[in-house]
Amino acid sequence: MKNYHLTPEQFREEGKKIIDWIADYYENIEKYPVLSQVEPGEIKASLPEQPPQKGEPFSQIMHDLDEKIMSGITHWQSPNFYGYFPSNTSFPSILGDLVSSGLGVQGMIWATSPAATELETRVLDWLAEMMDMPEKFKSTSTGGGVIQDTASTSALTAVIAARERATKYESNKTGVRQKLVAYVSSQTHSSLEKAIKMAGIGSENLRMIDVDDQFAMRPEMLQKQIQEDKKNGLLPFFVCATIGTTSSTAMDPVREIGEICRAENCWLHVDAAMAGTAMACPEFRHLKDGVELADSYCFNPHKWMFTNLDCDVFWVANRNELINTFSILPEYLKNKATETGAVFDYRDWHVQLGRRFRSLKLWFVIRHYGAEGLQFHIRKHVEMAQNFASWVRESDDFEIVVEPQINLVCFRHKSDDDFNMKLMNTVNETGKAFFTHTKLNNRVVLRMSIGQTHTEERHVKETWQLIKATAEHLLKNRKAKN
Amino acid sequence: MKNYHLTPEQFREEGKKIIDWIADYYENIEKYPVLSQVEPGEIKASLPEQPPQKGEPFSQIMHDLDEKIMSGITHWQSPNFYGYFPSNTSFPSILGDLVSSGLGVQGMIWATSPAATELETRVLDWLAEMMDMPEKFKSTSTGGGVIQDTASTSALTAVIAARERATKYESNKTGVRQKLVAYVSSQTHSSLEKAIKMAGIGSENLRMIDVDDQFAMRPEMLQKQIQEDKKNGLLPFFVCATIGTTSSTAMDPVREIGEICRAENCWLHVDAAMAGTAMACPEFRHLKDGVELADSYCFNPHKWMFTNLDCDVFWVANRNELINTFSILPEYLKNKATETGAVFDYRDWHVQLGRRFRSLKLWFVIRHYGAEGLQFHIRKHVEMAQNFASWVRESDDFEIVVEPQINLVCFRHKSDDDFNMKLMNTVNETGKAFFTHTKLNNRVVLRMSIGQTHTEERHVKETWQLIKATAEHLLKNRKAKN
């Protein structure tokens, strides 16, 4: 009887073709323009306006993937992708994710798949160990880790847990009634402002503390602002310190900020979304000095640790503060294991109830590479960034804007802002490489973020040659016009 | 040189083995106990306490998957899984998800992969068409759809957007200062209460409206409560109506509730997380009568539409209300396409910034099955549930608690609560089937939720025989003891 499903045999056949399709993709990835060249609306217009009434052959779907979708892809996995921040994946991660999709478990509570919970707990304890994190972040102590989807969600989770601790869990009941105030730096990721808004605190009650010439938060300014706010009857409750800001990988002084937080009874959240991966190498661990003063900490294996989106690791020092904030137990989820308190139910650790088997891909990555393999690639990326920086320094026309601490180089052509934007757009439009910009001290800065899985020395070198040649060409044109 | 990566050739080999592994899993899935039989801590204890220093062979990872992880899986994809609600997947979905993992794009804004945005927009317009949703939910009108991870996140998104509309976008600035009040029924999913807490409204300001004998919200009680709250100087701002509650698939009267919301200027969110899939069939569309009065609506293809977690479809009537609430535009994300306003940037439609290529698996599912294939399976599931209900009615020892409207049967043994819990636990411990309970009017009710991809008539029949035989056996034992 026709039942519309693929049979297991058809799945074997189509699945293996897709495995080959992905391998082919990586073998040919340098042939695609890194930045998609389509115009707004072009992809949508290529797709039928009406949904299919009847099912279509699998070959047709794959054909349309090639013919209609691929031109609209910006190739984050290209070795010539240097935009924003890395979002690198790896073959082991893809395969771990495939197993997760295949099993299709819903791990909202321990009982609905004990392995989904316990593997996550174990793997996050492993990472805490691998990265020399404080004992209190481990499940064997007072804290523990949970995989969130993104650092934005971790920020929201931290803000809400901090709000509840500060108001003795009253805000959850009465709404936000106290005059809470939070602190970030002017360089902190925008997701913190978004979290403060979502949590009902209000952006007026978020202070953006000044930064120093390295774009790191100035602790004395934080201290001053907290005093002023207290004088005005406000209740300081939350500070976010960043290890590696998005714009320039600036490093906030976690220890000094943490000591202020201790004294002022503020929740300290540390956002190490991208740079956190570097903590796998001992030589970068000074960047997290003081992290034992943090109440929560997050970093994204889905940025620089070869693991597919979504995978943000969120550790807390005291898991009860999280559970007291987010727990809700309706009758239909009651079960023996939860009642004994012997297990973690991760739905009480975050916004969502439903959750897939989130840790499998991370487990595959860590076991495949081992600490040693991860360190190897982190060091390679940092080395390539440092090399790039040295070429910039050696050139007459370009300059370094911030000394690169790890894998991001902030530089600019010595010409004006317009020229830098024009240079970036011209390079990006060639499709041969892709990088992005930011503004620091109100000036356009070009960002070369090095961290894709398959980026090698030759890619970085060729991209530098391309940037230099493009700049020379544009300068010549400009002079010809004048 | 050793670079620790899998080569494309190794990926082909290991990937194809995993495809076979998944096919084998589905061919043998009935041999596993549906509910995992492990004890708390058992899986964790089987895994090394220390992370691997050196990478391990892929074969070892797969070996440990079989030997250490599989016993801790509760098999949501088993045809004998009738717990909670379905979380069904399908081979096309698994393959669509695999392509998404392989491409590894980060679709936070249009420019970072135009296809990730535009395919999502198109597919959600398709679904609106397929399900006869109001025009305003389409991107071609004032609204549009976005894929959220879960219905919990949709609820939070709706509550926050409603909060902002009600306070003229002041709460985002000042924090929650007005005395807002929200309304759900006593049967509404707990995620709404969680959302109200997270958004800084406070659970004291959430009213749980009484339900009728079918567990549907009583609109006259809603009206009365709103009047009373207004008299007390509160500002009613949000109502959630449910199409298919979690406990019993109760259907709130959306039209009557919607008319009250219109008159009282409240945001109406409709939560159709599980039952929403039924709207693919014309004969169930009366259940959504009045949905054109809604401001937002969500349903989960990851529950009953053969699509892997995470996949929650969230439609709004007015996308500007969403964007005005959630938009933040830092310099490093500025780009030409966004500035022209010609594109959607989905990071402004939800909590997260980063997002994978979320629509691919849904596109694979819709194209593979077509509207016709989806309807076929929805109707099969409903028919099986109705058959199960008829067997319950025919038996002397069991009774139907709520007349099943679609695919959930709420029933109980005519004995007491303890007996029903004992019966359920005994059946679940056999590993042959898995179902769960709830409470309605303070009595234990057993729930038979039918919606797994591979559930056939024979599975449902055998499970009913097992439940009956187990009940007889337990009764006999009880009598023997007395």
UniProtKB/TrEMBL annotation, chains A, B:
Signal peptide bounds: none
GO cellular component, one term: cytoplasm
Transmembrane segment boundaries: none
Pfam families, per database record: Pyridoxal_deC
InterPro entries: Aromatic_deC, PyrdxlP-dep_de-COase, PyrdxlP-dep_Trfase, PyrdxlP-dep_Trfase_major, PyrdxlP-dep_Trfase_small
GO biological process, one term: carboxylic acid metabolic process
Co-factor requirement: pyridoxal 5'-phosphate
This protein's UniProt keywords: Decarboxylase, Lyase, Pyridoxal phosphate
A Gene Ontology molecular function term of the record: pyridoxal phosphate binding
Location of N6-(pyridoxal phosphate)lysine modifications: 303
CDD domains, alphabetized: DOPA_deC_like
Family to which the UniProt record says this protein belongs: Belongs to the group II decarboxylase family.
UniProt-listed PANTHER family: GROUP II PYRIDOXAL-5-PHOSPHATE DECARBOXYLASE, MIP05841P
Protein name in the entry: Aromatic-L-amino-acid decarboxylase
Source organism: Tangfeifania diversioriginum
